[in-house]
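Researcher: Good morning. I'm working through a list of sequences from a screen, and I'd like to move beyond sequence-only analysis. For each chain I'm collecting a predicted structure so we can compare shapes side by side. This is the next one on the list. No need for commentary yet; just the structure.
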Amino acid sequence: MIPHVAGEPKAAGDPRRRTDPLADAAIAHMLGPWTGQPAWRDIGEINRQIGQWQTNGMLRGWQPDADVPLEVGAALEAYVRAGLALPAWADPAKIERAEALFVDYGMLSCTLLFCSSLPECYVIPDLSAVLHIAGQLEQNTEYRIRSTAAMIFPVMMKGGLTSPDGAGVAQVLKVRLIHATIRHLILRGEPAAAQGIVPPQAMAPAAGGMHEALFAHGWNTPRDGLPCNQEELAYTLLTFGYVFLRSLRKLGLGLARDDEEAFLHAWNVMGHVLGIERALMADTMEQAEALFARMQERGRQSPYLPDPRPALGRDLMLTMENAIPLPVVKAFPVLMIRFLVGADTAREIGADTAREIGADLRAGLLAHLLFTLFMLVTRAIDTVARLVFPEFSISRLITRVVGYQFTVKVLMDQTRPLKLPPTLLNRVSTMTLAWETDPKAPRWMNALERRLTGRGKDAAEGVRA
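Model: Good morning. Structure tokens for this chain:
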């Protein structure tokens, strides 16, 4: 088990039956007990108020609007005061290094988000069940992806967690309250009081929103634990830190040990703000690998029927396929998922090559063989070339090209901007524009990348020879 950190309270018992006392108490105070008609109006008021949280600095001294009900305003103020501070063990130097790495890997980061982090999120059945209940992924897969990006970008941009001008803490505190709201709706009350089975309820035909679906669905607490519990939150945290770093290793782009640990550290600080217990975090890749495997094994031992994972995975793959313009490489996302997460995980989330690629088995197998051969040749060329040119990488080039399509077509579509404050959205746009040039690549490789992505020649300025 990961060593306990001095000064941090050590929780006891099953982490699948522990949630987030701070956020849960805030939501309970604001919504009160469920008696009669659910408090949809209060949920709308909460969303309106937290929408004001645009930067970290704004949270200090923040006060709700004068017309907000007293119990809602007081609970929000107390929640912000208690959740705003970073942990005593946060290391600003490590966080700054992690920010630089995120920006450096830019477009590639988006490929790994789509092809490894999100697929691994869907492996745990009861975690996928919450997503399934909300209906966000099946009905609009891009909604969940874009919501995830709207949290990741503010956290990992320069100063996201440490600067008053950053917005990472503000965005994470919003997400933390959303998790608590989901728990409260599914359980129809405080998680601490949930013991048995919450029976499903019939919804009125007109009540088809996410909140109504969560409230009406029901939940088997003895079998599935609590929704959005500590283990699920900690597991998700590992998909953004550990799985990202593991994927870089598989692509032959692994970081130095200090850089890997700096990246994990930044995500752990984010996890603290999100309400995750320190004992469920990993400081090294070895700890992360063991913790991740243990959580996956436990999650797989608790099946959720009907299994929501294949539908979620296939909708994710369809979204990726639609973002790829060239028919000859539309199979790339499915094959990359299998390469990065492994055949077992890919099969569990519906990434079956023979079924998802091509009209018949022969086409699927051919695509699989060609992809495998391509990855082997790429690794061989990269290994030899780096003996002379240390930064040379065809793997980085190809994954950046795919990441560009995901970034432009899904994350930064100007007709559907990310749900971020305008000033922050402008900063994100500026950052992603800078990603169009790879500072590690030679001039000819950047020129090839521009050609493959269809970008103009203006991105060539400032590229080193």
